[in-house]
Here is the input.
Amino acid sequence: TTHAAVGTFAALGLAKGKEGSKEIWAAVFLASMAPDIDAIFYLIDPRFYFEQHRTLTHTLGGVTLLSVVTAGLITVSSKKCSPFVLVLYAFVGGLIHLALDALPGYPLRPLAPLSSHDYALGLFWWRDPFFKVTALIGIGLILILPRFLARPFLVLGLLVMVGRVAVAF
Here is the structure.
């Protein structure tokens, strides 16, 4: 739910008032959730899921591939934005996912297969409500405020989140 809240917050802030806003919103939101598509492995075998979760789909290469697939699916259903622009927005969504996953102590290997170094800041318990609550407040503000204030409130909300990380660090 944190990925959904922060992804929605970023998507709304980036898309509001832009040409192709629905497509931009979809690209950022879907890509912010996409790395967890590996949850499908749980249906095959829960142990296999726990062994594979946060591997291929949680790398920069995996996020890039998922961004291209996300943008491609959106482009098939709508031609309002260029596929390249949608890939860039989707990539932002994927990076948001990786950033949130790096905050708790559970390791992440975003540079695999080039590097086997684990990244985990260990700053928060994985269910820390701060990011979700900040994002939900931001969503509410972006929805009710005029579009020219959407991006400033997105930046403010992201700065608040970064400030929380800095204080924890």
